[in-house]
Write a structure and sequence with these properties.
This protein is mainly alpha-helical. It has eight helices and no strands. It is globular.
């Protein structure tokens, strides 16, 4: 699922409130490609290190979502939920609620009661954004 999320990186990075330099966008994009490659080959610890590096460069919803996915794959539930809540708080260009429902990277945390609360928070954030856009 990271590949789909990574495609939204350019849009997310271009958000006016995020004023990221072209170089930072390139760095995060390159690192995200490495995260995807590491995750696909099953090297989740390496993917996590890379995802954390991308988040250090750009603390946006997308990088936090990727960190949450990698923490989940590494079995680090508490950290996964922290990063997931940060992603919800910051927002993403993609529908984070829908991603959370279908992303197999989050399977390790899906049965935790906190996941249901995170989905509710994502839904509330989506509704709030929709109301603001309609004004």
């Amino acid at each position: 699922m990271l590949a789909t999320v990574a495609n939204a990186a350019a849009m997310q990075m271009n958000r006016p409130a995020q004023q990221k330099s072209h170089r930072e966008q390139q760095d995060v994009g390159a690192i995200t490609s490495k995260v995807i490659a590491a995750a696909q080959r099953g090297d989740h610890e390496e993917a996590l290190k890379l995802a954390l590096k991308a988040r250090e460069i750009s603390d946006i919803g997308l990088t936090n979502y990727n960190v949450a996915c990698m923490y989940s794959l590494c079995g680090k539930k508490d950290q996964a939920f922290d990063a997931l809540h940060r992603a919800i708080e910051l927002g993403m260009s993609q529908d984070i609620e829908q991603l959370m429902r279908t992303d197999s990277d989050l399977d390790n945390i899906r049965d935790d009661a906190r996941f249901k609360r995170a989905l509710a928070a994502a839904s509330a954030a989506k509704e709030k954004n929709a109301r603001q856009k309609s004004l």
